[in-house]
Specification:
The strands form five sheets. This protein has a nine-stranded mixed sheet. Strands 10-11-12-15 form a four-stranded antiparallel sheet. Strand 3, helix 6 and strand 4 form a beta-alpha-beta unit. The N and C termini lie far apart (53 Å). Helix 2 packs across helix 3. By secondary structure, it is an alpha/beta fold. The chain has twelve helices and 21 strands. The structure holds zinc ion.
Length: 436
């Protein structure tokens, strides 16, 4: 179901005219109200009046996360603080927290794009949606919540944690949809198994998963465990929050970017040069309607490709591929680039392995080594010879895929690796710990 068919199926030439009008207005607004943008524009010798065509966006300066830290807390807001209806912030695990704000109108737009996204996943007014994204400063919980209310579904604000209670609520209330991180969905599935709750006891038809990169192999595991469509949602607080883009079940092949509100580019992460459709690079977003916190060419650090083929669902908004990884999650091991998702793809080939894993990078003398930690699926009969053989097989396959042979592949007993209650920790880089 299209929540806003007029917008979601708008002919592309009309959509692009709308984008250009909105881009010009956003650029003028940001230039007039945010000193950092005015300074950057002046440094590049570019003025809002220079934007005469959508392709002129490449003349504008990039914005990066560090800009938000440097202007902490309110330096990039384009409206007086008293006009803010809400503030969200990142956890600041890699430095100072980054703060974003919304006017009442911005919150309306956000609810609109999330309502579209939930409907796109297969929700219908009257459904029950179990929202296990964390509520609070993180945009996941409240973002999905407002969109669900806008759509007219009954929302269960479960937030994260207390997983056994979540399973009981899913069963007792008969939720039709589940939203959370994909790693938390796996935690819920495992808890169901522990509690003896079969998927047939649930009424889930669709899951809306995002906030961390995951793979097609992980999608198949989740769909099998819940008996539902598992779909990708995309967003980040700097651009808006969840609901910037959403995958449709008709094709499950990329996420429609809501292009009437967001202008998307893909650039080479090293040089910043624009890349053609189909090429994987860094996603860059310019907001087209936000008032409190307009972003100009924000570099997300997320790696994906734009796909321009039309979609069977009838939506005209272009699709982005699933996020293949994050620029800052990329491990460089002996000069080779390694993404955790590539390891995940290989591990998920084995039915005897559970979908829980962690990578450790250690420095031993002059060399860096990758170690892989994964665990057995519960109930698999294990003996030492079988374990040794499987470890060898995985190490060899990873060598072929990554061009780096892991020093060790440890297969742990079922249920022993840390479980996600939000974003999963996939990499422990002991090189960084050692150098402090
Ligand atoms: Zn579609």
């Amino acid at each position: 179901m299209q929540w806003n068919a007029l917008m979601e199926s708008m002919p592309r030439d009309e959509l692009q005219r709308l984008q250009l009008d909105r881009l010009q207005a956003t650029v003028a607004h940001a230039y007039a109200r945010v000193p950092l943008y005015r300074r950057r524009f002046e440094e590049l010798g570019v003025h809002p009046d220079d934007i005469r065509d959508l392709t002129d966006v490449v003349r504008l300066p990039f914005t990066v996360k560090q800009d938000l830290r440097d202007t902490y807390p309110f330096g990039m807001f384009a409206v007086p603080r008293s006009e803010l209806a809400r503030i969200h912030a990142s956890s600041g695990t890699k430095g100072k927290a980054t703060v974003v704000g919304y006017t009442r109108g911005d919150l309306e737009v956000w609810a609109e794009v999330v309502a579209r996204s939930i409907a796109c996943a297969g929700a219908r007014p009257g459904d029950i949606l179990h929202n296990a994204y964390g509520y609070g400063l993180f945009t996941g919980g409240l973002g999905l919540h407002a969109g669900a209310e806008r759509l007219g579904v009954t929302v269960v604000p479960a937030s994260g944690g207390f997983t056994r209670r979540q399973v009981a609520l899913l069963q007792d209330f008969g939720a039709n949809g589940l939203c959370c991180t994909p790693s938390y969905a796996l935690n819920i599935a495992e808890t169901m198994a522990d509690m003896g709750v079969d998927r047939s006891a649930l009424q889930l038809r669709y899951g809306i998963f995002g906030a961390e990169p995951w793979t097609e192999a992980m999608r198949r595991r989740i769909e099998e465990q819940f008996g539902m469509d598992a779909l990708n949602i995309y967003g980040l607080s700097e651009v808006m929050g969840p609901g910037v883009a959403m995958e449709c079940p008709e094709e499950k092949a990329g996420l429609h970017v809501w292009e009437d509100h967001f202008l998307v580019e893909v650039v080479d992460p090293e040089t910043g040069s624009p890349l053609p459709d189909g090429a994987v690079g860094e996603l860059v977003f310019t907001s087209l309607t936000k008032q409190a916190f307009p972003v100009i060419r924000y570099r997300t650090g997320d790696l994906a490709a734009m796909l321009s083929e039309p979609c069977r669902c009838g939506r005209t908004h272009r699709r982005m591929s699933r996020v293949k990884g994050r620029v800052d999650d990329m491990l460089i091991i002996r000069g080779v680039n390694v993404f955790p998702q590539e390891v995940e793809l290989e591990l998920m080939q084995f039915e005897t392995l559970a979908p829980h894993y962690q990578l450790t990078v250690v420095r031993d003398g002059p060399l860096d080594h990758l170690e892989v930690h994964v665990e057995w699926t519960a109930g698999v009969p294990v003996n030492d010879a079988f374990a040794a053989e499987l470890s060898q097989t995985i190490a060899e396959r990873l060598r072929e895929r990554l061009q780096v042979r892991p020093r060790a592949v440890h297969i742990h007993p079922a249920g022993t690796l840390p479980r996600s209650e939000g974003k999963a920790v996939r990499v422990v880089d002991e090189r960084a710990l050692g150098s402090v």
